[in-house]
Design brief:
CATH architecture of the largest domain: Alpha-Beta Barrel
Radius of gyration: 20 Å
CATH superfamily of the largest domain: Aldolase class I
Strand order of the largest sheet: 3-10-9-8-7-6-5-4
Largest sheet: 8 strands, parallel
Shape: globular
Bound molecules: flavin mononucleotide
Helix content: 40-55%
CATH topology of the largest domain: TIM Barrel
CATH class of the largest domain: Alpha Beta
Distance between the termini: 30 Å
Strand content: 5-15%
Order of helices and strands: HEEEHEHHEHEHHEHEHEHEHHHHHH
Length: about 350
């Protein structure tokens, strides 16, 4: 492991103050730096983003979902997804697939990359995945799960975890049954997105159910869904019965949410537009370390910058400018110009849907 690279003294001080309020936790045998973890997100949670989020207070992270068949066919793109940065400390690799033996074979390869744990995607609602029996379709047939879990577990000597939904649809809420099977097969923890597969991203995450499951405590439970603001994170941290929380879309627009979840009313500082610019610059350098593909860097940077800018003044104008920028340099010029003239804070409109689609 290499040493952490410091941010500017102003930003680093704020990070250090808030990180000092986080307490490390253990979920089963897996230790994390704090109770708030970054949720897996496809095409987002690659090594550069995960590393940045760990530095900004995520207690742990999970990769995007990675196809077991892609690994077993030695697909080059799939192998790239398995990469872990040497400074990532608390990362799990998430696999998806429907066949126990194929998953076991892929898990062995993934475990060689030195993640802390292997996670099974049992929440993906996307038709292409569920039609083959993977993702949330695994929840439809609990009888098959003992064999599925035990076969994968036998192939690896690091912990195995699962991420599920509450059930397939409102008539088949079976998360507790699945957690019971998982417990018997030695699964380390269960992360639950509080919606059914049928709901996809509609409606609200069912936190009443998540809290009830958290209280029953068959296994360490991570509650997930709709914690998109520091206020919501703070409120949930105060009295949740779940062992940990997982945040997905919140950090995309507010990369400081893992830290702000630990702020109090007495704190007399905030994260400024200058701080945003600093982490964007760092993210760019992590992307450049990760890949030589200019197009990938450009597209990834652009989408993350646009998310991060949401809620700042004149963002529509900035978005247009960034989408017409022809390369990385121009994108960064426009970004530097925009963020350096911002005064004051941002105001995100949380009443509108944001990224209402994804693989879990
Ligand atoms: C763009 C996007 C991609 C996602 N990809 C994955 C994935 O690869 N694996 C997974 O288990 N969940 C995935 N999810 C689901 C999230 O991990 C999380 O369960 C969901 O977004 C609800 O949490 P949130 O309200 O904090 O975003 C994805 C969600 C989004 C929005």
């Amino acid at each position: 492991m290499t040493d952490q690279i410091k941010f500017s003294p102003e930003l680093q001080t704020k990070i250090d103050v808030l990180k000092s309020r986080q307490t490390p936790i253990k979920l089963g045998g897996i230790s994390f730096d704090s109770k708030c973890l970054l949720a897996p997100m496809s095409s987002i949670c690659t090594a550069p983003y995960r590393l940045l989020m760990e530095e900004l207070g995520a207690g742990g992270t999970v990769s995007e979902l990675i196809s077991c068949h892609g690994i077993n066919y030695k697909n080059e793109k799939t192998f790239k997804m398995l990469e872990i940065h040497p400074r990532e400390r608390n990362v799990g690799i998430q696999l998806f697939g429907e066949n126990a033996e194929a998953m076991a074979q892929a898990a062995e390869v993934a475990a060689d990359k030195n993640p802390k744990f292997i996670d099974i995607n049992m929440g993906c609602p996307v038709r292409k995945v569920v039609s083959k029996g993977g993702g949330s379709a695994l929840m439809k047939d609990p009888l098959k799960l003992s064999h599925f879990f035990s076969t994968i577990k036998k192939a690896i000597d690091i912990p195995l975890t699962i991420k599920i939904r509450t059930g397939w649809d409102s008539d088949s809420i079976n998360a507790p049954e699945i957690i019971n099977i998982a417990k018997n097969e030695g699964i380390e923890f269960v992360a639950i997105h509080g919606r059914t597969r049928t709901q996809a991203y509609k409606g609200q995450a069912d936190w009443d159910l998540l809290e009830k499951i958290g209280q029953d405590k068959f296994l360490p439970i991570i509650g997930n869904g709709d914690l998109h603001t520091p206020e919501k994170v703070r409120a949930r941290l105060e009295d949740t019965k779940c062992d940990a929380l997982m945040l997905g879309r919140g950090p995309l627009r507010n990369p400081f949410i893992f830290l702000e979840g630990f702020m109090t009313e007495e704190d007399d500082f905030n994260f400024s537009a200058q701080d945003y610019l600093e982490i964007i610059e760092r993210f760019k350098s992590y992307l450049e370390d990760y890949t030589d593909r200019e197009r990938t860097i450009h597209i990834t940077l652009r989408k993350n910058i646009v998310w991060m800018a949401q809620g700042y003044p004149n963002v529509a104008h900035f978005r247009n400018a960034i989408f017409t920028a022809k390369d990385i340099d121009e994108t960064m010029d426009v970004t530097r110009e925009y963020f350096s003239q911002i005064q004051g804070g941002k105001r995100i409109d949380h009443s509108k849907d944001f990224m209402a689609g994804g693989h879990g």
